[in-house]
Write a structure and sequence with these properties.
The chain is of the alpha/beta class. Helices cover about 30% and strands about 20% of the residues. The chain is built from six helices and 13 strands. The strands form three sheets. It has a six-stranded mixed beta sheet with strand order 1-2-3-4-5-6, covered by helices on one side.
Length: about 250
């Protein structure tokens, strides 16, 4: 299967160089991205025979362009529950489905964590389209209550069982070392989890206090996001009974 991509003009701290929209063969698009006219025009020019739009999750940098593309081309939208309404989506996917793209199978894998509805797509050749579950560089964000660190780590482990070869991420460069990248992601999250536990043992009693210990020199603009990541770790530890909350404090 021929895989091409177009990067949306929406660079930023969370989108890196921009959202990568993937073009599979001549008929299928994965994550058409934000509803930016120039990006939509670029997709239409590259895919004059567009028939299918696949979405990994609902976020504004991945999904909105699906609607004007459907309106302009008549393409079908396949998306998890929670992405648009049922009148907009032609087929719901949840994981476990096998889709045909120009005669080749594309497996849908449920990967909740970044969002509850997130899915990834895997070709028989081992090409894994990860949306925001795995990025080409850096790590993805988990913002509770929608995001779940426990689900996220479980999803990474599930991806390993499918033995992917290459990662085509929603942001950042393609990676040819899929297994190593996913293993690094798991190791990073578990290392951060241990840092949270060590901070609690040292007397920290809030996400802000933990953040000060783990990220002492963090750019002030990123402190809120860092504390949300810490909250995600704390939620996981509470769910597992490894941390107990007393009043306003967590220990």
């Amino acid at each position: 299967m021929i895989i091409r991509d177009i990067t949306a003009p929406n660079p930023g701290p969370f989108t890196l160089s921009g959202t990568r929209t993937y073009l599979l063969g001549e008929s299928t698009v994965i994550d058409p991205g934000p509803a930016i006219d120039s990006h939509i025009d670029a997709i239409r020019a590259a895919m004059p025979a567009l028939r299918t739009i696949l979405l990994t999750h609902r976020h504004e940098d991945h999904a909105p362009a699906a609607v004007p593309l459907k309106r302009a081309t008549g393409a079908r939208i396949l998306a998890p529950l929670g992405v648009f309404d049922d009148a907009t989506v032609d087929q719901r996917i949840a994981g476990g489905e096998s889709l045909l793209v120009e005669g080749e199978a594309l497996r849908v894998i449920a990967t909740p964590g970044h969002t509850i509805e997130h899915v990834c797509f895997l070709t028989t050749a081992g090409d894994l389209f990860t949306g925001d579950t795995v990025l080409g560089e850096g790590t993805t964000t988990i913002f509770p209550p929608d995001g779940s660190m426990r689900d996220y780590i479980d999803s990474l482990r599930v991806l390993l069982t499918h033995q992917p070869k290459r990662i085509f991420p929603g942001h950042g460069p393609t990676r040819s070392d899929a297994r190593a990248v996913i293993e690094q992601y798991i190791a990073h999250r578990l290392e951060r989890e241990q840092q949270v536990l060590d901070s609690l043992a040292a007397g920290a009693t809030s996400a802000a206090a933990i953040r000060e210990r783990i990220y002492p020199d963090l750019d002030p603009r990123l402190r809120g996001a860092a504390e949300m990541q810490i909250d995600a770790h704390l939620d996981k530890l509470r769910d597992e009974g490894r941390v107990v909350e007393h009043g306003a404090n967590t220990k």
